[in-house]
Amino acid sequence: MDLALITVAFVLSLGTSSFAYNYTFPEGFLFGTATSAYQVEGAWIEGGKGENIWDRLTHERPDLILDQSNGDVACDSYHKYKEDVAMCVELGVQFYRFSISWPRIYPHGFSYNLNKEGLLYYSKLVDELLANGIIPVATIYHWDIPQALQDLGGWTNPLVVNHFVEYARVLFDNLGDRIKYWITINEPSQICQEGYGNMDKAPALNLSGIADYLCGHNLLKAHAAVYHLYNDTYRESQNGTVGFTINGVWYEGNSTYDDDAAERMMQMYFGWWAHPIFSSQGDYPPVMKTFVARKSAAQGYRRSRLPEFTPEEIEYIKGTADFMGLNFYTARKAKGAEYDGLEVSYSNDHQVESWIDRDWPMTIAPWFGINPLGFRKHLNWIKERYNSPDIYITENGYPDAGEIDDFDRIDYYREHLKAMLDAIYEDNVNVRGYTAWSLMDNFEWMFGYAHRFGLYYVDLTDPQRPRTPKRSALYYKEIVRTRQLTYEKLK
Ligand code: NOJ
């Protein structure tokens, strides 16, 4: 090519990001895939495991689950974990993110009866991953608190902090020699707001505006305590890294007034968790403190329903993450709203109404409209507010009814990976890795097995639970192999 042509090509490349970085992933960027214990393991009452809140909810209230199913057997990963690892090998991913079931380790949550069989299961899974050159990434809590602790209030009981620390300690002691990536807690909003505030998750307490805030308060302290435990006792010898994963929904307004509401929603949905840990000031977002306090006072409360951290607690929680885990799926439009002044609820506190824009394509899931640009915007929002932390995308994926020729899922992955690459190259956001949710179809909480996110199809009518790669598995495999987004080719 002569110089003139090269110049023309270069000038053209400035106009569109597609030429600027050629959709190539940065050096050292990690690819992975993920599952969680309750969603895939099954063996709910095997190997010494205790009952958790999802066992209880699905057994007592099957009517709350779209197809009345449960995780009793799920994908049977408790017995088929070697097949799961073989699928990761086939995909060529660098890491596998799984979660550890608390009641498999401590069946009742209390630290007096360690279930060695449960520990052995995870030890074998980790060994199998390492033997195949795959990095284990372990989530310590992915929504399955032991029922015995729930009977004492679960995450609303301040003593949960001590129980969580003892549970984490036994994991660091026994698995920390081999696990170098830890995520303390997955998606606090879903745990507290959806599980304690309403009935979208177990334990379905439905005490919005009270139990959700108590849950969050203890959860943040429990996370920080585990981070400090790692720092003080294990970091030097084990040399790992500890993060915290938050679900991001990109809220956006249409007018200046609505932009205020959208920002408030970002703060009260995402900042609720990110501000105490990742901001330089620490503590809950100021706007959240103001709004909950104001509404509480108007309702006759003597103090805000949002508990207060002491100055020491603010310092103790601040900075307790080596990286931020971001789960991203969807976006919403937002505008300010005036809800009934007397009702005690999280939505009455934030005073924001939100909805899915009619122009965004929908998925099978009612909560899920597609907006890849929202992903890029959310990443920028994080960068600006929290001093550009290291981010791992710990989940991103697409639900359908279980098609093998899942071209819509491929579109979703391609568009979101492109939005992420734009954020990395054009906006300098520090994204270090990406996780496709999920390795295989699994128990999608209140939607049972009706909504499927897998790269692999799982036949749930067959006791062997055979797994079959979907088109998207082949697509993801190609991206991981070439380390390039085959954007035009596969469109
Ligand atoms: C986030 C949760 O962590 C995961 O368990 C769930 O299956 C996905 N979102 C999809 O809803």
Automatic annotation (TrEMBL):
Recorded name of the encoding gene: LOC108733535
Lineage: Eukaryota, Metazoa, Ecdysozoa, Arthropoda, Hexapoda
Protein name, UniProt field: Myrosinase 1
Signal peptide: 1-20
Claim: Isomerase is one of the keywords in the record: no
SUPFAM superfamilies: (Trans)glycosidases
Superkingdom, taxonomy of origin: Eukaryota
GO terms classed as biological process: carbohydrate metabolic process
MF terms in GO: beta-glucosidase activity
Keyword tags: Glycoprotein, Glycosidase, Hydrolase, Signal
Claim: Cell membrane is one of the keywords in the record: no
Cross-referenced Pfam families: Glyco_hydro_1
Organism whose genome encodes this protein: Agrilus planipennis
Family the entry assigns: Belongs to the glycosyl hydrolase 1 family.
Subunit structure: Homodimer.
